[in-house]
Amino acid sequence: QVQLVxxxxxxxxxxxxxRLSCAASGSIFSIYAMRWYRQAPAKQRELVATITxxxxxxxxxxxxxxxxxxxxxxxxxxxxxxxxxxxEDTAVYYCNADIQVATTLTARWGQGTQVTVSS
Length: 119
What we know:
By secondary structure, the chain is an all-beta fold. The chain has strands spanning 3-7, 10-12, 18-25, 30-39, 46-51, 57-59, 67-72, 77-82, 91-101, 104-109, 113-117. Strands 2, 4, 5, 6, 9, 10 and 11 form a 7-stranded mixed beta sheet that branches. Strands 1-3-8-7 form a 4-stranded antiparallel beta sheet, with no helix packed on it.
């Protein structure tokens, strides 16, 4: 059984910072791309950032220059450093990863962590 567990969400004031973590565990052979998505109330889930197994990154325009995605392959963990947070960043943040178990490659999701930006 493969699990993705997020942590690090919470309440922060505008302009503040948070660091999200997402750790994968289980019978993992390999992890390829890892991603962070977010979903605000009454809105569709949107892709925030992607990091490949080689370390290449991509960001949504709305977070470029403020968010940084990184990963620690030895720990099967992806991070999202969020700086200069704005109220519009308020959402449930989900991690997503392409994980190979034996010969099967599947996209897996975490349970989500709430980020609230408010004064």
